[in-house]
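Look over both lines:
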Amino acid sequence: MQPNTYYSGGPPSYECQDQGPLGDESKRIQNVISPPPQSTVVTVTHNISPVQDHVVWSTFNMAYMNFCCLGLIALVFSVKSRDRKMVGDMNGAVSYGGTARSLNIAATVLSILLIFIAIILVVTGVIRSSYGVH
């Protein structure tokens, strides 16, 4: 039989011939055309953390803890951060998001401090309810 000169999709068939230990086998292997190598594409992305715009926190601060309008200002910066993120300006989004985060921290801390001071003043009697005056 003639050796295969093309790739048939399966393993090459070898017939047994008495031509010595290697005989015509090396010629047969050289005549088989190997299949084209398969390639694998690996996409490597950078570890980019998502930009946080703090819209929920800003909305909560605007509704419940709006100390000196800091919650409203934080909401404005949060919306600006979200807009920058949608446009693709990640540097602007990070900048506005950081400002919104700082304003949210300030609004939360100052509002909780104000509530805490009001509770202390009521408990100590500095601020009296109108029912006890009459």
